[in-house]
């Protein structure tokens, strides 16, 4: 199932710029563009803050896995995933970067 939303959770860059780059690549593959969503933004930033606080790159969080964290921020999902990275020259907080992907539950 294709994901319909994306948010990049980092406070050091503009998510709209990253989204434009992602959608440019998606269009080359004839995939629908992704859109920003406030709840996903909050969930992604929550995970970035956790990684930065403990200085480790991890999908684990005492608040629960990605699905639980999305529900915490009022995003009722049907599919969800998370990409984490560290060491980017832009788009990170204390070296950590996060993107949460999900499809709304209908």
Automatic annotation (TrEMBL):
Species, as recorded: Diversispora eburnea
Residue ranges occupied by any SCP domain in the UniProt entry: 19-87
Protein name per UniProt: 6551_t:CDS:1
Recorded superkingdom: Eukaryota
Pfam (any one): CAP
InterPro entries with a match to the protein in the record: CAP_dom, CAP_sf
Signal peptide limits: none
Gene3D superfamilies listed in its UniProt record: CAP
SUPFAM superfamilies: PR-1-like
């Amino acid at each position: 199932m294709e994901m319909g939303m994306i948010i990049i959770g980092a406070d050091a860059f503009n998510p709209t710029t990253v989204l434009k780059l992602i959608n440019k690549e998606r269009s080359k593959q004839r995939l629908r563009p992704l859109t920003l969503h406030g709840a996903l933004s909050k969930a992604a930033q929550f995970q970035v803050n956790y990684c930065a606080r403990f200085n480790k790159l991890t999908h684990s969080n005492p608040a629960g896995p990605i699905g639980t964290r999305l529900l915490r921020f009022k995003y009722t999902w049907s599919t969800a995933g998370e990409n984490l990275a560290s060491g980017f020259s832009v788009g990170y907080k204390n070296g950590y970067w996060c993107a949460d992907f999900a499809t709304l539950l209908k």
